[in-house]
Amino acid sequence: MPHQITIIYFAWVKERLGRDQEIVICPETAKTVGELVEHLRGRDTFYKAVFTDLTKLRFALDHDFVGLDQPLADAGELAIFPPVTGG
Amino acid sequence: MIKIAVIKGDFDAGDEINELSTHGGGAVSSFVGQVRGDGDLEALKLEHYPAMTEKALNKIADQAAKNWTLRGITIIHRVGSLKVGEQIVLASTCSDHRQSAIEACAYIMDQLKTVAPFWKKEIWRNGSESWVEARQSDIEAAESWNR
């Protein structure tokens, strides 16, 4: 069965993509967070623009911060957002 | 004793500090962050990642409890729309010694700035909006605790 993952967006990432979440079927080639992001980048010009400079983005897999090389394994939720600005 | 709260409404910092003080120790340190009135700023909108926020705040508190001998920790962070001058955040710690209380409180605030999933949007008087960008000095302050 293909791996489905919920992707959630926050702050300007959400605004620029015009959506707060979506369910994505991971392609065979996407084994890591970075590879799934690469897949998203290929979708259209909006995704390409948002996912061009990955240094401006942070990632959380099942609610823990991760790097781009983190394996997706059987994770259910990937969040993509700018560096946090709380406090 | 760790108390974590993510709320829309205001909080009474005095009540929170008094409640924390009941855990004893005699040394209580606190920090309150408010919306700073920069130029024509009218308000801040605070967005967060509900499924992750409390987990992240608990992680920060747990690490503070490991690094220092504390009797209690309170972290309250507001979300939603906040006008200039309103309270955003309270971090408070309670210990037997002032150094532990003060250092742990500073540690919690530094971590809050870099690992808790909150985002601030500035709402200006002319109606324009802009997302606050993370500051390098905040990142360096948080990392300095690892040295």
Structure report:
The complex is a heterodimer of chains A (87) and B (147). Chain A is of the alpha+beta class and 87 residues long. Chain A is 25% helix and 26% strand. Chain A is built from 3 helices and 5 strands. Chain A has helices spanning 11-17, 33-41, 45-50, and strands at residues 4-9, 21-25, 58-61, 64-66, 77-81. The model of chain A has no long low-confidence stretch (mean pLDDT 95). Chain B is α+β, with helices and mostly antiparallel strands and 147 residues long. Chain B has a single domain (2-144), classed as Molybdopterin biosynthesis MoaE subunit (Aldehyde Oxidoreductase, domain 3), CATH 3.90.1170. Helix content of chain B is 37%, strand content 35%.
Question: What order do the helices and strands come in, and which of them pair?
Answer:
The complex is a heterodimer of chains A (87) and B (147).
Chain A: E1 4-9, H1 11-17, E2 21-25, H2 33-41, H3 45-50, E3 58-61, E4 64-66, E5 77-81
Chain B: E1 2-7, H1 13-21, E2 27-34, E3 41-48, H2 50-67, E4 72-78, E5 80-83, E6 87-95, H3 98-115, E7 118-124, E8 129-131, H4 136-144
Parallel strand pairs in B: 1-4
Antiparallel strand pairs in B: 2-6, 3-5, 3-7, 4-6, 7-8
